[in-house]
RNA sequence: GUCCCCAUCGUCUAGCCUGGUCCAGGACAUCGGCCUUUCACGCCGGUAACAGGGGUUCAAAUCCCCUUGGGGACGCCA
């Protein structure tokens, strides 16, 4: 039997954003789930607005998310001949005609319709004029004026639109280039695309495209229109809502699996399950569970997912990422093995890698450059406490095994002898060694820091 | 303006197709508590929703209609 073919068809006019990434994910999952093919097509027919570096950045973002495509990438800009071939075919079969109306004239027609409270459309003036080619002339689809066109949508269900609502759309521009609707249909049909999941905003376009499919005698694919992603104010997500480009999230320290998981849950669900591995998604995803109402993008939930995946990741992998984030903060030539020992202490404490890097700073900063929270120093370093700190410093210096268990035991013993509570020295020690009042477990921290650095910091703290 | 789509806690959603098991379940966020050497993690608990109105039915979150609200489309953009 025929296998599923899906596609993602971004236009290289900007970065891959949240919404585009989600439709890419849905199409990718549908293909992978059914063992089909996932194609990638760059819609760059608008030479003015398309930028080649944008194509690369879209590819990079997809690679980051792990959305691999099959076969070669199709570029619409290289298929103009093909489009023209089909336009000519429609001209021959009487499904299209030449029109000499200027854009201004058409705009006037629309304005007139608007005045009457009707839907603005082209009047069809040249429809029966029997015009031939000519400079500046466009080719229009000779669309049916009666009846209705039905879209049997995978997510919206049956959607019917009166053909009277549609006008004779332009297929070939005055400069000879094909329009979007024509190119999309020719591409999807010739590329063998069987299922198209795309944004809600294309739903109104679909009947028009179906008309072209019919005029060309192509089989119809299945369409699925997923709702738009909204900002917290329920308006279409845009830059003013903060980060919209997928790769901005990488910069902020999100893991690709968190992004994938988070995005797929916007408009798709599988019962009460929240966490999905890539493999699970592939095996569970079908268009059946796609929701039909718009979703607000909630960064807080993405944070939670990211924190979850950070906790799950092996330290060695995170160490590499942490290194990159620390480099951005000006720390170079760090030892990955050392970072891998810091990571476990920070895994439950960081929601993003950027946050982890921030918290890791006190581990990688030079002892003499460690910044102390002076308010804390003042609060905790009383004369009495300084005395204990000095003793503890000697105790740590003489410890046989420098690990947190023996450290803890030694300190406990010291305190017990004097009938003191651990609370008395816990925060002072923490401040002395990390400079701050909040940190991972005290002894784990000291262990990772190592004897030399811990003692150096204790000495420095005592001199403050 | 015209057409199309949508409507369950603040947010993501389950349930809706195949009415009763739902005085609506989960998750994030939030609030309280526990744990505790700080900060987190974790655990326990709380607040919180079927937009409104009409039908249909013994019974409606679930089916139908209307209203309202939101979104989208009406390009020689994609």
UniProtKB/TrEMBL annotation:
Signal peptide: none
A GO molecular-function descriptor: ATP binding
CDD domains assigned to the protein according to its UniProt record, in alphabetical order: GluRS_core
Domain Aminoacyl-tRNA synthetase class I anticodon-binding: 318-462
Superkingdom classification of source: Bacteria
Ranges spanned by the short sequence motif 'HIGH' region, renumbered to the chain: 10-20
A single cellular component GO annotation: cytosol
Cofactor note: Binds 1 zinc ion per subunit.
Keywords: Aminoacyl-tRNA synthetase, ATP-binding, Cytoplasm, Ligase, Metal-binding, Nucleotide-binding, Protein biosynthesis, Zinc
PROSITE patterns reported for this sequence: AA_TRNA_LIGASE_I
Name of a matching Pfam family: Anticodon_2
Domain Glutamyl/glutaminyl-tRNA synthetase class Ib catalytic: 4-304
An individual GO BP term: glutamyl-tRNA aminoacylation
Family: Belongs to the class-I aminoacyl-tRNA synthetase family. Glutamate--tRNA ligase type 1 subfamily.
Subunit organization: Monomer.
UniProt-listed PANTHER family: GLUTAMATE--TRNA LIGASE (PTHR43311), GLUTAMATE--TRNA LIGASE, MITOCHONDRIAL-RELATED (PTHR43311:SF2)
Protein name (database record): Glutamate--tRNA ligase
Gene: gltX
């Amino acid at each position: 039997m025929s296998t599923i073919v899906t596609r993602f068809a971004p236009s290289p006019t900007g970065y891959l954003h949240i919404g585009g990434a989600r439709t890419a994910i849905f199409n990718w999952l549908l293909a992978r789930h059914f063992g089909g093919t996932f194609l990638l097509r760059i819609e760059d027919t608008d030479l003015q607005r398309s930028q080649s570096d944008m194509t690369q950045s879209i590819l990079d973002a997809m690679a980051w998310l792990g959305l691999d495509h099959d076969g070669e990438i199709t570029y619409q800009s290289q298929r103009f001949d093909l489009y023209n071939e089909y336009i000519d075919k429609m001209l021959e079969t009487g499904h299209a005609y030449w029109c000499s109306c200027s854009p201004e004239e058409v705009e006037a027609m629309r304005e007139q319709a608007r005045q009457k409270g009707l839907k603005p459309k082209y009047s069809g003036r040249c429809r029966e004029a029997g015009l031939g080619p000519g400079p500046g002339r466009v080719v229009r689809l000779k669309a049916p004026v009666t009846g209705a066109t039905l879209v049997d949508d995978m997510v919206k269900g049956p959607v019917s639109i009166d053909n009277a609502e549609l006008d004779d759309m332009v297929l070939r521009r005055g400069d000879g280039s094909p329009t979007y609707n024509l190119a999309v249909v020719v591409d999807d049909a010739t590329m063998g695309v069987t299922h198209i999941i795309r944004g809600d905003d294309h739903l109104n376009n679909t009947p028009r495209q179906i008309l072209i499919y019919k005029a060309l005698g192509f089989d119809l694919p299945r369409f699925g229109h997923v709702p738009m992603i909204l900002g917290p104010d329920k308006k279409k997500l845009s830059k003013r809502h903060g980060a919209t480009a997928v790769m901005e999230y990488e910069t902020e320290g999100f893991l690709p699996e968190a992004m994938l998981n988070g995005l797929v849950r916007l408009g798709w669900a599988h019962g009460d399950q929240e966490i999905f591995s890539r493999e699970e998604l592939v095996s569970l995803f079908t268009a059946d569970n796609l929701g039909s109402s718009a979703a607000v993008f909630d960064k807080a939930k993405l944070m939670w997912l990211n924190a979850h995946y950070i906790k799950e990741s092996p330290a060695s992998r995170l160490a590499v990422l942490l290194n990159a984030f620390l480099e951005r903060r000006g720390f170079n030539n760090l030892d990955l093995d050392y970072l891998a020992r810091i990571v476990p202490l920070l895994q439950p404490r960081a929601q993003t890698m950027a946050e982890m890097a921030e918290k890791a700073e006190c581990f990688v900063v030079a002892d003499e450059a460690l910044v102390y929270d002076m308010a804390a120093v003042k609060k905790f370093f009383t004369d009495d406490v300084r005395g204990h700190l000095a003793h503890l410093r000697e105790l740590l210096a003489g410890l046989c095994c420098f690990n947190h268990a023996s450290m803890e035991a030694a300190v406990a013993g010291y305190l017990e002898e004097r009938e003191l509570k651990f609370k008395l020295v816990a925060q002072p020690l923490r401040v002395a060694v990390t400079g701050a009042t909040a940190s991972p477990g005290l002894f784990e921290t000291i262990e990772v820091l190592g004897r030399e650095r811990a003692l150096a910091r204790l000495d420095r703290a005592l001199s403050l």
